[in-house]
Design brief:
This protein has about 210 residues and is mainly β. The protein has two helices and 15 strands.
Amino acid sequence: MRPLRVVTLLAVLAVGCDASEKVRTATGIRPTYDKTTGRLTELSLDSNHNGRADTWTDMDGARPLQTRLDTNEDGKVDRWEYYDTAGRLLKVGVSQKDDGKADAWAFADQAGALERMEISAVSDEKKLTRWEHYAAGAVATAEEDTNADGAVDKWETYRSGALATAAFDEDADGRPDRRLSYQDATLVTIETLPDASGRYTKRVDIR
């Protein structure tokens, strides 16, 4: 499914030549064409008609490649939309730090609902440090590489969007050694000393 902004941008291109300039002025949309080939290369949009473009879509003719948005108009891009070869939305990047760099990427399932998030503490999608998995619009599980060494060392589960358990690999063997359990955001148990099967043999109840 194409985002509404891209559909709106593409619709302007279908307007007849005589009326196109009036429509572009009214909608805040401006196309850019390759001077040699005449092929469309970019569409810019001033979504709130304040005289400043806040959305830019790189185009290959009528096919969108990537959209960049400055949603709060602070001069820095804070949202990126990526498309496949058919122009369908693949993923959405956001800048959680609002520093002009994408540091989290959202992926939707076939129904368009949020399915997972990939997050990078260093704002590099090739160096991910956290993975979140969603169900019914809420985070269900997550894995994290807390020390950025390339290996997951923290596992979380959620109940109705609230943290239920957090397990930690404290000896870097790829297996959890300690698990914390929560009830209504309150720590209730600490489990340690897992056996060979991964079952914790020591439990402390927090009262």
